[in-house]
Amino acid sequence: MLEECRLPYIMKPVNIATGDQFKPEFLAISPNNRMPAIVDPDGPGGRPISVFESGAILQYLGRKTGKFYPADERGRTAVEEWLFWQMGGLGPMAGQAHHFRIYAPEKLQYAIDRYTNEVHRLFGVMNIRLKDRPFLAGKYSIADMACVGWVSRWERQGQDINEFPRLKRWLETVMARPAVERGMKLRVEEASKVDMKDPNVQALLFRQRARTA
């Protein structure tokens, strides 16, 4: 979204393998200790504002710029339906598929099948939706931006994108957008060096319980 709107930004990596996500200064921005989170120094009233959760960030930037988030109620509702569909369905289910297929210390076939099948079902929902429209809400929007990152990882989720020809067409169209290409190229060098099989890293990422303070 930042690239699509040509908004200036500084990317500040958070090293989740060493616990940076639990530092007080980050929790002040993102109390759920997850990425992404943003700080807009030019927020409402000219004062800084922090926003966490990708859906909330996309809505905020859409309202701020007037781009990719319709102002009319009917158009906005269509975008929000698919934005929340991603937040409550595609993202969590694909994330669990990633976890049990790739990162879980033991292979639990039931869990692998459960989440692989659910992602397959969700891909089917998108494929049907795209039957008579180029994008999820008709026009390209923050709903497409929210979904493309997950769909682009279809192999990691145990899917064959060729089973879903309309979804494949949508994915190729979105991925070919210059702003999406620029955004997808952003990588943190240190992240590629994280050993996800390291017990200490797994404890930080997968075995957290509630913190009381």
Provide an overview of this structure:
- The protein has 213 residues and is mainly alpha-helical.
- It folds into two domains: 1-67, Glutaredoxin, CATH 3.40.30; 73-184, Glutathione S-transferase Yfyf (Class Pi), Chain A, domain 2 (Up-down Bundle).
- Helix content is 49%, strand content 4%.
- The chain is built from eight helices and two strands.
- It has helices at 24-27, 54-65, 73-103, 109-129, 142-151, 165-175, 178-185, 199-206; strands at 37-40, 49-52.
- A two-stranded antiparallel sheet has the order 1-2.
- α3 (73-103) runs parallel beside α5 and α4 crosses α6.
- The protein is globular, with a radius of gyration of 18 Å.
- 22% of the residues are buried.
Q: State the total count of DSSP E strands.
A: 2
Q: What would you call the shape?
A: globular
CATH class of the largest domain: Mainly Alpha
Task: Please identify, by name, the CATH architecture of the largest domain.
Answer: Up-down Bundle
Model regions low in confidence, pLDDT < 50 over at least 5 residues: none
The strands making up the biggest β-sheet line up spatially as 1-2
Using the coordinates shown, work out and report the CATH topology of the largest domain: Glutathione S-transferase Yfyf (Class Pi), Chain A, domain 2
Count of distinct structural domains? 2
Q: Termini separation (Å)?
A: 34 Å
Which strand-content bin applies to the residues?
A: under 5%
Radius of gyration: 18 Å
Structural class: mainly alpha
What is the oligomeric state here?
Answer: single chain
Q: Count up the helices.
A: 8
The share of residues in helices is 40-55%
Largest sheet at a glance? 2 strands, antiparallel
Series of H and E elements: HEEHHHHHHH
